[in-house]
């Protein structure tokens, strides 16, 4: 079950370093030392918002999937903040894997092509 937290709880949390990225809470205590971008950027944001910094650094899909393993909870929906633009990478990794590819992108293309071909056939039959 997902642990729901308020921003105040994240801020006051003792014993572990938590950061908030896209309304989810991550425990970066163990990861701080190995962060390729350095400890400082994480410590500066400890207990608070790190979404913008995270996106600005242009993290790879690998970094994004690491993130998922550090998740400890989610911010209560009443306190959600959304960045104006989330990257497509982000949306891809945060989507429920079961939802992925259930609806192929070209699901409308096939019927449209059939209708167009049928119309062309009628047109051809009528005029020639
Ligand atoms: C828990 C959250 C984070 C994780 C799991 C993470 C992970 C990583 C990883 C794996 C890299 C190596 C390059 C890549 O694969 O993209 C990286 C690089 C970097 N990260 Fe993070 N990061 C986190 C948070 C942040 C935040 C909040 C900032 C800034 C505010 C930041 C700034 C950077 C920078 C500047 C680099 C580039 C380092 C370089 O190439 O010299 N990261 N991070």
TrEMBL record:
A GO molecular-function descriptor: heme binding
PROSITE patterns registered for this protein in UniProt: CYTOCHROME_B5_1 (PS00191), CYTOCHROME_B5_2 (PS50255)
Keyword Membrane: yes
Single GO cellular component term: endoplasmic reticulum membrane
SMART domains documented for this protein: Cyt-b5
InterPro entries referenced in this protein's UniProt entry, alphabetically: Cyt_B5-like_heme/steroid-bd, Cyt_B5-like_heme/steroid_sf, Cyt_B5_heme-BS, Cytochrome_b5
Annotated localization: Endoplasmic reticulum membrane; Microsome membrane
Primary localization: endoplasmic reticulum
Cytochrome b5 heme-binding domain sequence ranges: 2-76
Transmembrane segments: 108-127
Family matches, as Pfam families: Cyt-b5
UniProt topology in membrane: Single-pass membrane protein
Keyword annotations: Electron transport, Endoplasmic reticulum, Heme, Iron, Membrane, Metal-binding, Microsome, Transmembrane, Transmembrane helix, Transport
Record-stated family: Belongs to the cytochrome b5 family.
Protein name: Cytochrome b5
């Amino acid at each position: 079950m997902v642990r729901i937290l308020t921003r105040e709880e994240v801020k006051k949390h003792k014993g572990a370093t938590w950061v908030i990225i896209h309304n989810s809470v991550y425990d970066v205590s163990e990861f701080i030392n190995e962060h390729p971008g350095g400890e400082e950027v994480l410590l500066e944001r400890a207990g608070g918002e790190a979404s913008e910094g995270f996106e600005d650094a242009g993290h790879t899909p690998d970094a994004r999937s690491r993130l998922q393993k550090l998740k400890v909870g989610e911010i209560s929906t009443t306190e959600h903040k959304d960045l104006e633009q989330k990257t497509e990478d982000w949306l891809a990794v945060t989507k429920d894997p079961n939802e992925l590819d259930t609806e192929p992108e070209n699901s409308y293309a096939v019927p449209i092509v059939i209708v167009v071909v049928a119309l062309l056939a009628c047109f051809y039959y009528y005029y020639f």
